Each structure stands twice: as structure tokens, then as C-alpha cells.
Amino acid sequence: MSEKLLEVKDLFIEYATDFEVVRAVNGISFSLNAGETIGLVGETGAGKTTTALGILGLVPEPPGRIVSGEILLRGTNLLAKSAKDMQKIRGKEISMIFQDPMTSLNPVITVGDQIMEVLRLHEKCSREEAGNKAKDMLELVGISGDRFSDYPHQFSGGMKQRVMIAIALSCNPGLLIADEPTTALDVTIQAQVLDLLNGLKEKYNTSVIMITHDLGVVAEVCDRVIIMYAGYIMEIGTIKDVYTNPLHPYTVGLFGSLPDVEEEVDRLNAIKGLMPDPSNLPCGCKFHPRCSCRRKECESEERQLIEVTPGHFVRCGQYLHREEEAYDLLVRGKRA
């Protein structure tokens, strides 16, 4: 069995203003093993980035706050840590590649100094040692160490993302969170960045949480996938389980909205409607206003995750009914 690196248990996060409360994350639970990559997939507003900020202790407060739950890193609850303790953990044990490399780097500081800053903060090394390690990290991500003294504006978008990866991995963290790391890049550079992440993950046995809306990226780098909607986990399972046998109508809709090069169609099967307002979520199943498979009880009854096959969970009433029907048939058979 692999060592369990991270456990998120029943996590609730909300943003409160004078006029409304935005329920961004609603009771999500999942675990991540050492060396494993898990993908968080969903539309904009599904709660993916807020989940990552919760893990890092970076939910802006106010207006945000972690209402309840546990985030265990190697068995230690991060939510019980002080702000000073979390500063020591961020960059050293957990690092993050932020969404936009164009704005994540400081434009008036050289890339070398930005890598050195992390090293000197966590490794307590001299400036010379940090400089040599920073050059090594640039070489590791495919950038010449001679560019140590260059500024961010002198790099292309793909190279900036590589610098961000170098910063994130400079202290060899056990957990790397990548928030849409390929969004602003063209497809050829995307492939290079994904290959780089895969190679570094294997070299350092780093666990990765990949946040994306791109199912192709997930298939390329992830071992398991979590489908999120309106702050809830709708489906979770291995790549094989979810991609070959999607269970939740929302997951089916995501795959149906992708073009198929082998099939000629006039229109894609887009999911009807829009993501609900997180400050005014519908009763019952949060997806029911857009669901073609909804039942009457879906409008009022909150659904729980059901394990349909080992390790493959889904939050949908139709599978609950299947379990009940199978149980009734079993009982009737025993009586007969």
C-alpha cells in the first residue's frame, strides 16, 4: 500500500459579504497517496481553486473562511496550524503552480533571485549555494542557467511557466498543486509542460493535484479524477473507471461536449443551462435543474456519494435506487 500523503475530510469553505454567503466548497472528502496524481475537473466556479487555497491556508479572510473539516498532511491537521507554521510548510512541503505565469512572477526581480528567495527561506543556505541551486533548477526545467539574471519579460509564456515550476519544485516538496498550468499556452508548449511535469514527478516521487477543466490534460497525467460541480464532488474514480464508464449525468455531459475526431456530427451535445449561483444553490441535487435523468425526489433530497464499484463513487439518486432495487430482489429471493 502507498503511504497516504494528504486527506481532506468533509471540508466546507464559504465567502461571506454583507449581502450574501457564497458556498464555494461543500463537504468534500478525498485522499492522495505519495507519488499519485489526482485531477480536479469542473466548470469555472466549481470550487477547484478554492479547495487548493484551503489546503495551502491561503483562503483570503475576510471574506473567505474555512467553516469546518480537516486537511491532514501526513496525519497532521493543517487547519490547526498557526499562520507562521503554514509559512514554513508552503514552498517546503506543499508548493503551487499558479494559473497565470504572465502575472505570477514579479516583473522587477530576476528569475534567479525569485528562485533563490524560496531556497534561502526554507533551506537556510548561503546566497552562493542558493544561486548554484537556482541555476540547477533552471537547467532541470529546460532553461539555460545563463539566463539566471534575466527578467520575466525576457521569457516567453512557456518559459515563464517553466520558471514557475522551477520555483515550486526548488525545495523538493511532497505535494505539488498545479492550477490550470497549461491554460495560457499553445498546444505544443502544453505538451512540453505536461511531459516536464510527468518527468519531474517520476524523478522526485512528488504527489500532484492537477486543477483543470481540460479532460485531455487529466488523461495525460493523472491516476484518478474528481469531478466537481457547485462545490460538491459528483464523481471520483480511476482514469479508466471514469473515462470508460462515466456514471454521473454531469460527467457524461462533459464527455459529450467534447469533439470526437472519429465521428462526424453537426452539433456537440452541450450541457443545458448554467452553473447555479453559489450564493443561492438549488435544493436537493445541485445538478438537477440541468439534468435530463432527474427524478422528482432529486429536487428535494440531498444526495451522498455512493460506491458503485470498488473505488468508483458517484453522487446520484439513480444509483441509490439501483442499490435499493437489488436489495429488494435479494430479500424477495431469500423469502421465496
Question: What is this structure's SSE topology?
Answer:
Layout: E1 4-16, E2 21-33, E3 37-41, H1 48-56, E4 64-73, E5 76-77, H2 83-89, E6 94-97, H3 101-104, H4 111-122, H5 127-140, H6 157-169, E7 175-179, H7 187-204, E8 207-212, H8 215-221, E9 224-229, E10 232-238, H9 239-244, H10 249-256, E11 306-309, E12 312-314, H11 317-335
Parallel strand pairs: 3-8, 3-9, 6-7, 7-8
Antiparallel strand pairs: 1-2, 1-4, 4-5, 9-10, 10-12, 11-12
Q: What distinguishing features does this structure have?
A:
336 residues; alpha/beta; Rossmann fold; 8-stranded mixed sheet; 4-stranded antiparallel sheet; 11 helices; 35% helix; 23% strand; globular
What can you see in these coordinates?
- The chain is of the alpha/beta class.
- It has 2 domains: 4-230, P-loop containing nucleotide triphosphate hydrolases (Rossmann fold); 234-335, no CATH class.
- Helix content is 35%, strand content 23%.
- It contains 11 helices and 12 strands.
- It has an 8-stranded mixed beta sheet, sandwiched between helices.
- Helix 4 crosses helix 5 and helix 5 packs across helix 6 (157-169).
- The radius of gyration is 22 Å and the shape is globular.
- The two termini are 43 Å apart.
Gyration radius, rounded = 22 Å
Would you identify the regions where 5 or more consecutive residues have pLDDT less than 50?
325-336
User: End-to-end distance, in Å?
Assistant: 43 Å
Main β-sheet description: 8 strands, mixed
How confident is the prediction overall: mean pLDDT? 86
Number of helices: 11
Order of helices and strands: EEEHEEHEHHHHEHEHEEHHEEH
CATH topology of the largest domain: Rossmann fold
Helix content: 25-40%
CATH class of the largest domain: Alpha Beta
CATH architecture of the largest domain: 3-Layer(aba) Sandwich
